[in-house]
Amino acid sequence: MTSIFDSYQLGNLRVSNRIVMSPMTRNRAAADGSPTPSMATYYAQRATAGLIITEATQPSPQGQSAPHTPGLHSDEHVAAWRQVTAAVHANGGRIFAQLLHAGRVSHPEIAGHHPVAPSAVALNAELFTPRGLLPAPVPLVLSTGEVKDQVEAFAAAARRAVDAGFDGVELQGASGYLIQQFLSSNANQRTDAYGGSITGRIRFAVEVAEAVADAVGADRVGIRVSPGGQVWEIVEDDVPQLYSTLIEALAPIGLAYVHAQATIDDDVLIALRKAWPHAFIVNPGGKFGPQHTDRAMADHWLASGADLVSFGRAYIANPDLVERLRTGAPLTESDRNTWYGGSDAGYLDYVSYQH
């Protein structure tokens, strides 16, 4: 029987186990988006994961979602990320950069740019900015030509990621950000080739995947999805058909993996797994679901067809998570007050389990 501790061939990488560290925003980058030495230590501490996927990293200044999130749109960012990738590789780990464009989930006070989106549909929400919580503005509508510019921004960021030493990149197509805004039936009210029918609504995601695969090689690229997920007020009509059509369109590109959040019934995810010809990662906890991913949930999904399983919150307070799962050691609970921003407290001071 397959075990989460078995090695796996993921695209062009041999990973040491099937445990993935899920992307988690921690807001510890410098004000200009450059990764810090503390970030290098944080990821290196967790390098026993088969694969680390970094926190959300903006491919352009306009794509920034929150203060102190890292970027991959300048030479300075590339140089600063090298300390992170070198530290992870020195500890035997593998690491992908997650590329996230916030779309409408942004504010001029955060990014210095007015947010853009498929349509002029604002969030009914307040966003955390350097000046505190502020209402989300109505986003600017991307023209057809500007949509192409966003596609190229993802490709350029992927090139920088490889230059910075990353083993690959993950496209954030989940959790209510720009790619999922195009997939949605409420945030996307377009009538051009990027809206309307399911074929139109998946077009942006497919074009981004194609461009990034062309830029760095398909076997260095994954995509994260949250079928039916409702984070940031996303609504998706006919979820099974939408995602089966997306999977069918992505399959010929040859991406290394699909990373699916468990945001819909298991049978829908299992059907997507069966339709997808490459590696399939499941994040059982969804987006801040009621349960942390644990060993039993991981074993369930491996038995249901997943190739790898990602763990999110458990990795905050358990840098040695692989060993704790292997030995059955208890998991430390993290302090939610230190999840986002702040000092190294609640970031670097969680220790390995002492028997």
Overview of the molecule:
It is a single chain. The protein is built from eleven helices and 14 strands. The radius of gyration is 19 Å and the shape is globular. It has a single domain, classed as TIM Barrel (Alpha-Beta Barrel), CATH 3.20.20.70. The mean pLDDT is about 95. The chain has an eight-stranded parallel beta barrel, surrounded by four helices. It has helices at about 35-45, 75-90, 110, 145-165, 180-185, 200-215, 240-250, 265-275, 295-305, 315, 320-325; strands at about 10, 15, 20, 50-55, 95-100, 115, 125-130, 130-135, 140, 170, 220-225, 255-260, 280-285, 310. The protein starts with 7 loop residues before the first strand and ends in a 28-residue tail after the last helix. α1 packs parallel to α2, α4 packs parallel to α6 (about 200-215) and α7 runs parallel beside α8 (about 265-275). The chain is α/β, with parallel strands linked by helices.
How would you describe this structure in keywords?
eight-stranded parallel β-barrel, 11 helices, 355 residues, globular, TIM Barrel, two-stranded antiparallel ribbon, oxidoreductase, 14 strands, alpha/beta
Using the alpha-carbon principal axes, give the shape. globular
CATH C-level class is Alpha Beta
* Class based on secondary structure composition and strand pairing: alpha/beta
- The number of domains is 1
**In the CATH hierarchy, what is the superfamily?**
Aldolase class I
Helix content: 25-40%
C-alpha end-to-end distance: 28 Å
- Would you identify the regions where 5 or more consecutive residues have pLDDT less than 50? none
**Total beta strands:** 14
